[in-house]
Amino acid sequence: MRSFTGITTILLGIFCFVLFVGCAVRRVAFNDPITARELAFVRLGETTLQEVVERLGAPEDIALDADQLVADFQWSTTRSASLNLGYLFRLISPVSPTFTLSGTGINIEHVQFVCDKNLVVQSYLFGRADQHALIEFWPF
After folding, report:
1. Is the pTM of this model over 0.85?
2. What is the pLDDT of residues 63-84, one digit of tens each?
3. How does DSSP assign the chain, residue by residue?
4. Using one digit for the tens of pLDDT, what is the confidence trace for 90-118?
5. What's the rounded Cα separation, in Å, for the pair 15 and 129?
């Protein structure tokens, strides 16, 4: 009975090792986050959009609405993890099909500057887009 437990432990260890070989974890950051502390230089009604762009870089989007201009600065963090269950077939087959279970989380944050027709900042606000969580089982 003891040898059966030893063999079971070894097989379980090999099974876990093969599963971990098929694991992948990723994190991708797009643009640097902008904090309220970094916007301390902005004086509403005095600071121009040009001054904001010089400090923060170019905005991701600019929209013109009537006599206002809205400049949108965005940053995001994407985290994903996947487990390729097809690696298990490598133990018994020379071909390993792809059966991937994966999850992805995307967090998009932004700060928008509202400017008048002279491109002077009148207000700004921070916001966060909806968090996206995707879980996929491929190829199904």
Report:
1. no
2. 998 889 999 999 888 888 777 7
3. -HHHHHHHHHHHHHHHHHHHHTEEEEEEEES----TGGGTT--TTT-BHHHHHHHH---SEEEEETTEEEEEEEEEEEEEEEEEGGGGGGGT-S-----EEEEEEEEEEEEEEEE-TT-BEEEEEEEEPPPEEEEEEE--
4. 667 777 677 666 777 778 889 999 999 99
5. 40
| Other Cβ atoms closer than 10 A to 82 | 16
pLDDT tens for each residue of 17-44: 666 666 777 888 888 888 889 999 999 9
Bond preceding residue 94 cis, omega within 30 of 0:
no
| 57 Cβ contact list (under 8 Å, min separation 6) | 73
| Amino acid letter, 15 | F
Distance in Å from the first CA to the final CA of the chain:
41
Q: How far apart are CA 64 and CA 114, in angstroms?
A: 10
Asked if residues 9 and 86 have their Cβ atoms less than 8 Å apart, the reply is: no
